[in-house]
User: Fold this.
Amino acid sequence: MKKSERQKKFVQENINLFRCPTCQAPMARVVDNSIVCQNGHQIDFNRHGYLHFLTGAAETEYGREMFCARRQLLESGLFTPIIKEVAGVLPDKPLRLLDVGTGEGTPLKQLVSLRKNDRDVMVGFDISKPGITLATQLGLRAFFCVADLRKLPFNDQRFDALVELFSPSDYREFNRVLAPGGCLIKVVPNSGYLAELRQLLYGKNQAKSHYDNQRVVNLFKQHYPNCQLKQVKYQFTIPSGQQEALVEMTPLHWGKGARQLTAKELMTLTRVTVDVSLLIAKKGE
Assistant:
């Protein structure tokens, strides 16, 4: 089955997940190459098979090169221990799961591989068209779309779990689409995240050579007072020749004052620290 046919089949079988971004009415049916809401608004599947739910222009600096570099490192195992922890937190039952800010889809692919549950219904979305175009190439039994997390194109209380890696949040929207008792897992970087790369780019003991995410953690706790926090920290050995991809996959090198690293400096970057926290909550608790 072609990827476009596979994506369309998914929507047909799970039409109750989706709602219209124009009028917020539930999507009613798939007609030819379009999905149509109860009020007659329609969105066409594009040639890659995904749906574009944005009603305006996307504002993102994340392009194809960045996502290709990210995939290269993630396929080498950069986030594997994180994904294993996420898989361990999720309930051991068939889930309707939404991957927020899915990017090029590799973390979702790894999560599907770990869960090995053919009854899971997986959806990944991102605001970046280059990321979603790459995600549709994975051959994954999941649906990908372009959407805005502040205006999710999904009906109320449709998902059992939301997973979010290094993405912004809209907790009002998350709570709207989560089913009662649904699980939310947000992964945020800690101060040691990619510290070796930060120090190369900005120098040691500088403002940007460390990271403080306490404000994000505090906001999560305000919304979910009974949440749990689990730290995941490890060293990752960078495969030979992937140092440049590591730089490219993060927005760290965009920052004011970031140095242009030489080939010799890149070669000194053999290991990096991955230091994150899983923020874990249930809707209604």
About this structure: The mean pLDDT is 92. The longest strand covers residues 178-189. The first helix runs from residue 3 to 13.
